[in-house]
């Protein structure tokens, strides 16, 4: 009984949108004015509900303006509110055709087709079987639904689904977000080999945050499971533009086919260092290391054989370099010599901070904070309130907080204590030198942070002096990444270290180090060893160091 009545109820609700009867709210986007109903719209979108509940002009005029959105996509959003679904014009054109389902691998789609003899068993596409439709009499047959022009036309719906997903996320419409994701996934499985797929993939990665895996995982799966896509220039441009896409495809292949740095499957480049031979991939290595890209582009034997030999380097350091190129990080092997136990870290706290607003509401200080339903005014701290914002309000977020932390109320957390061994200091220094040598700029800041953390713990060990010598011997004078860390560490513990013979020899042998320490001791502002915009303590590359 209820199943027979339900369609009438849904149809009546949908008619309210078409007629505008009983409307108590308008949504304006461009030249489109949608007469809607608060009970339908606000119960499905927390953002729009908050706009009406806590807004100024919006509440008085019962009008929400969306000037920054695309009117055709907003129209689909409104349609979803009333029907639980949306169909773009492209879907309506193809409605009822079976090509929307996932194509079977048994279809040849070999057009134009001519039957071979009286009895033909060719399975061309979902819409035509020679055995049942033409009795084996096809001559130059083309399916009007599966032709390339038609497919490219229908595939444009992929981009629309990506735009709907973006808008659903913006206005916190959970159901619409899941629906558009499902449509996007079906579209990718059917239209991956069309001109629109790269466009839709680029839009999906450009309009979603890295933590939102919805559309991103679909794009990664589509590319990873269809190797022919990687050969397309437009897909290669995407892989270079979005590092997370390249890494995702590689990890997917590694999971499904063991295509990884270890297995070497699909490798098209070999890097040799000592006894080690690494089967790697140009698509991963070359965009992140300029030296390797130039060696293949302008080299002789390297380009011909797709082989690069690094006879002067330490095989262990090269292995760490390649690990970074593939994973965006590197991990040193555990040292056989145990390290002393870690000292507990005491985090500073801000005392005497206000506990209540002037009106008596409590500050929660629940950092990091993410706005969640139900959306009600929320006083995080004296500097931030979660509320629907108008143009005149500051310190508000329109309920868009994602892991928000107030820098004024929360001191910077102390970095975690280094968990390695003293021997790591020299490995970090050697890796930094290799990153400079092969122009892997993104690796240097990472090494600098790890080296700095290790120096804070192991400054009193003999390995610190050895690493310091390596730093000043293997880096140019203009690069104060690790040099600045060594100088700062020595200065902070000079009273203890200066009496050691090996430290005195280090300072005497390294003139730049002695000058840096002298400048710090007299408080010279031009001392570049603390931090510089050019090659600062974070190790980023640049010009000559300048005063901090």
Could you name the key traits of this structure?
548 residues, mainly alpha, Potassium Channel Kv1.1, Chain A, three-stranded mixed β-sheet, 26 helices, disordered C terminus, SKP1/BTB/POZ_sf, BTB domain-containing protein, BTB/POZ_dom
Walk me through the structure.
This protein has 548 residues and is mainly alpha-helical. Among the domains are: 85 residues, Potassium Channel Kv1.1, Chain A; 106 residues; 58 residues, no CATH class. Helices cover 47% and strands 7% of the residues. A hairpin with a 2-residue loop joins strand 9 and strand 10. Helix 5 crosses helix 9, helix 9 runs parallel beside helix 11 and helix 14 packs across helix 15. The longest helix is centred in the first third of the chain and has 18 residues. The radius of gyration is 31 Å and the shape is flat. It starts with a helix and ends in a 27-residue tail after the last helix. It comes from Cochliobolus sativus (strain ND90Pr / ATCC 201652) (Common root rot and spot blotch fungus). This is BTB domain-containing protein. InterPro entries: BTB/POZ_dom, SKP1/BTB/POZ_sf.
Quick summary of this structure?
This is BTB domain-containing protein. With 548 residues, this protein is mainly alpha-helical.
Record the SSE blueprint.
Blueprint: H1 2-19, E1 25-29, E2 32-36, H2 38-41, H3 46-54, H4 57-61, E3 63-65, H5 71-83, H6 89-93, E4 123-125, E5 128-129, H7 130-134, H8 148-155, H9 157-170, H10 174-191, H11 196-206, H12 214-224, H13 227-230, H14 233-241, H15 243-257, E6 269-273, E7 276-280, H16 282-285, H17 290-298, H18 301-305, E8 307-309, H19 315-327, E9 378-381, E10 384-386, H20 424-437, H21 443-458, H22 462-474, H23 481-492, H24 494-497, H25 501-509, H26 511-521
Parallel strand pairs: 1-3, 6-8
Antiparallel strand pairs: 1-2, 4-5, 6-7, 9-10
Helix pairs in contact: 5-9, 9-10, 9-11, 10-12, 12-15, 14-15, 19-20, 20-21, 20-22, 21-23, 23-26
């Amino acid at each position: 009984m209820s199943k027979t009545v339900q369609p009438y109820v849904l149809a009546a609700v949908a008619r309210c949108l078409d007629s505008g009867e009983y409307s108590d709210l308008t949504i304006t986007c461009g030249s489109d004015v949608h007469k809607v109903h608060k009970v339908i719209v606000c119960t499905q979108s927390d953002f729009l509900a908050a706009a009406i509940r806590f807004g100024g002009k919006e509440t008085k005029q019962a009008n929400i303006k969306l000037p920054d959105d695309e009117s055709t996509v907003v129209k689909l959003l409104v349609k979803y509110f009333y029907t639980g679904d949306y169909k773009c014009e492209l879907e309506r054109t193809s409605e009822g055709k079976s090509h929307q389902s996932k194509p079977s691998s048994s279809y040849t789609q070999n057009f134009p087709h001519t039957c071979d003899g009286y009895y033909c068993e060719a399975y061309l596409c979902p819409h035509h079987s020679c055995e049942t439709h033409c009795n084996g009499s096809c001559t130059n047959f083309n399916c009007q639904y599966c032709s390339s022009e038609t497919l490219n036309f229908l595939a444009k719906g992929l981009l629309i689904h990506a735009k709907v997903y973006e808008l659903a996320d913006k206005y916190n419409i959970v159901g619409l977000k899941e629906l558009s994701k499902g449509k996007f996934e079906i579209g990718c499985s059917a239209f991956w080999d069309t001109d629109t797929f790269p466009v839709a993939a680029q839009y999906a990665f450009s309009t979603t945050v890295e933590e939102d895996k919805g559309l991103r995982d679909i794009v990664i799966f589509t590319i990873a499971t269809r190797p022919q896509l990687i050969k397309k220039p437009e897909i290669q441009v995407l892989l270079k533009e979005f590092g997370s896409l390249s890494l995702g495809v590689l990890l997917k292949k590694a999971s499904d086919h063991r295509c990884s740095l270890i297995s070497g499957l699909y490798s098209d480049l070999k890097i040799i260092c000592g006894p080690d031979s690494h089967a790697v991939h140009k698509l991963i290595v070359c965009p992140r290391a300029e030296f390797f890209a130039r060696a293949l582009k302008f080299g002789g034997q390297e380009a011909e054989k797709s082989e690069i030999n690094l006879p002067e380097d330490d095989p262990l350091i090269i292995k760490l370099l390649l690990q970074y190129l593939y994973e965006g990080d590197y991990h040193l092997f555990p040292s056989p010599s145990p390290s002393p136990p870690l000292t507990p870290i005491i985090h500073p706290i801000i005392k005497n901070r206000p506990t209540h607003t002037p009106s008596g509401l409590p500050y929660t200080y629940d950092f990091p904070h993410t706005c969640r339903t139900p959306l009600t005014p929320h006083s995080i701290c004296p500097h931030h309130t979660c509320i629907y914002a108008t143009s005149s309000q500051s310190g508000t977020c329109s309920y868009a907080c994602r892991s928000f932390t107030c820098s004024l109320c929360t001191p910077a957390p102390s970095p975690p204590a280094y968990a390695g061994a003293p021997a790591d200091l020299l490995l970090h220094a050697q890796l930094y030198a290799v990153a400079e040598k092969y122009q892997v700029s993104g690796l240097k800041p990472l090494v600098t942070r790890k080296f700095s953390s290790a120096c804070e713990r192991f400054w009193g060990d003999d390995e610190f002096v050895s690493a310091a010598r390596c730093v000043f011997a293997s880096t140019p004078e203009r690069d104060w990444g690790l040099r600045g860390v060594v100088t700062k560490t020595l200065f902070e513990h000079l009273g203890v270290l200066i009496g050691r013979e090996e430290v005195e020899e280090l300072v005497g042998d390294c003139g730049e180090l002695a000058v840096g320490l002298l400048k710090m001791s007299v408080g010279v502002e031009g001392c570049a060893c603390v931090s510089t915009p050019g090659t600062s303590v974070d190790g980023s590359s640049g010009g000559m160091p300048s005063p901090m």
